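Input record (one chain):
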Amino acid sequence: MAHEESTQKELIAGVFARAASSYDRIGPSFFAHFGRRLVELAQLSKGTRVLDVATGTGQVLFPAAEQVGSKGSVIGIDIAAPMVEAAVAEISRRGLKNTEARQMDAESLDFADAVFDAVLCGFSLFFFPSLDRALSEFHRVLRPGGRLAVSTFAEQDPASKGFAELLKAYGYESKLMLHALRTPEAVEAALGKGVFENVRVTFEEADFVYADEEEWWAMNWSLAQRAPLEQMSAETLQRFKADAFSMMRAYKQPDGLHHPRRVLCAIATASA
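The corresponding structure, as predicted from the sequence alone:
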């Protein structure tokens, strides 16, 4: 089991390392939009000490840093070194003194107990090989009564579902997402195993408009969706791309290619 978990983490780290240079930078910024929403829902106070787990290039990190102000502090962690390097570079560019990023495993946090007022985690719970262990670590580093704010994907929108079904028809599936957290009940069950209480789940939906099929295709390569695409031969990938473009024409309007996203955000408190 330990070997399998290590292999899974290496797979995840590798995919995101290869995506880091363009991550969420092609077309409308999907993760940045929901990152801001997660911070808004978390209602962070000025001076708050925050940990952002699976920080990526900072889509939750930077809104959180702005919210807590100069007297607060935010640390972002990620398992993929290139993601951390990108976040560190942006921290430097912005001249932030209350923000840092470190490479770290979410299931083995290198922090003392009860040192954070809030833990945030955007679109990552489903990647953790041992979700219970990760949540236990979140609880450990939170002060009693501290706040947890997480986001995950809700039931798939038609475009995402069509893309997944097309992958399956070609004999490929993304093996990165290990946990089905697509309903409020599933999220509540995962968080409410004795360590978090007062779990509140809200549904969010937003429409993202891409200039054309090529921009939409490039977006997929900048995110975790690249994993199954990387496994295809050049010939297979060319055929798959053509079929994907054909499928996405149903979502094309005069202003571009529309791809709505459905998301669940959960807020909970750490039990004493």
